[in-house]
Design a protein that fits this description.
Blueprint (H helix, E strand, L loop, with lengths): L3 E4 L5 E3 L17 E3 L6 H8 L2 H5 L1 H16 L7 H35 L5 H27 L3 H27 L8
Antiparallel strand pairs: 1-2, 1-3
């Protein structure tokens, strides 16, 4: 079984054998580490160590960034670059609700594995924010399908993408605060 240690200063947890001279997270000397007291089953540890949810939540963030960067630029650039930007934004809009759904599902699984229940205060807040983000992504998707890239629709999509990004940031910040939290057992 792997032995884990935790930085007393910042809470970073890692395998003992991977520690060099400094904490990889905060840079303090290795003397600030102590044995990690989180005891979980090897099966749960293996699943958590795959970081499936933290990885999957980056897909919608990338699609939102593409929308927020390239769509406004289409008002200022000319063809053929404008058309290339619109193709990329179109793909991002079409992929967004599916990537948000993937992040939501993996978040539920991750929460259940880490905390053994989904009704903890922070998880409930994350679920609500995740549902709102899912709804916003579906609205963006539907707006595009119904109207294409009209100037008005493009402005609405940009505004909804800004709002979606705010929810994605909230989800990321809340999730990162819970990253090392794992119920024992």
């Amino acid at each position: 079984m792997k032995t884990y240690i935790q930085c007393k200063a910042c809470g970073f947890i890692m395998e003992e054998g991977h520690l060099k001279d400094l904490c990889p997270a905060c840079g303090l000397p290795k003397t600030v580490f102590e044995p990690a007291t989180k005891k979980i089953s090897p099966k749960r540890r293996f699943i958590i160590d795959q970081h499936i949810h933290p990885v999957s939540v980056h897909f919608p963030q990338v699609f939102l960034a593409i929308i927020l960067i390239l769509l406004p630029l289409t008002f200022w650039v000319t063809d053929p670059l404008r058309q290339e930007f619109l193709i990329t934004v179109k793909f991002s809009i079409l992929a967004l609700p599916f990537s948000v759904l993937l992040g939501f599902i993996t978040g539920l699984v991750d929460g259940k594995i880490r905390f053994k229940k989904l009704n903890t205060p922070l998880l409930v807040n994350k679920i609500i924010a995740g549902v709102i983000l899912q709804v916003l992504s579906i609205i963006i998707f539907t707006l595009y399908l119904l109207n294409g890239f009209t100037p008005t629709t493009m402005l609405i999509i940009i505004l909804l993408s800004i709002l979606s990004t705010a929810f994605a940031i909230y989800l990321g910040r809340t999730g990162s605060s819970m990253f090392n939290s794992i119920m024992p057992g």
